[in-house]
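Posting for a labmate who doesn't have an account.
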Amino acid sequence: MEDLENAVAHFTLNTDLRIPNQNQLLANYPNPFNPETWIPFELSQDTEMTVTIYDVEGKRIRQLELGMVTAGRYTTADQAAYWDGKSETGEPVVSGAYFYQLQAGDYTETRKMVILK
């Protein structure tokens, strides 16, 4: 009982738990990658979301339909969008530069990534 009387609770709010002020597409990792990569992002509000992969000529290679995603930070491998380096037909893509574009409501942002085999 004496231990409980002297116990002190310490609580710190983890900054990762707070909802971001704005949507943001972050750098994929690893980059360059082979054969898979994760695409982290932050959402300020719940929204329908897709990530689309394009080649350097602007041809759509793959579309990742993530559906309704709740506001928050998706920055770890178990939370971020995942691309296995394959096309819509399941074929592995060739080495080179690609672009990934996040579409979340009215927000759109594009970044560059490289696959090296």
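Reply:
Got it, the structure tokens are right above this. The radius of gyration is 19 Å.
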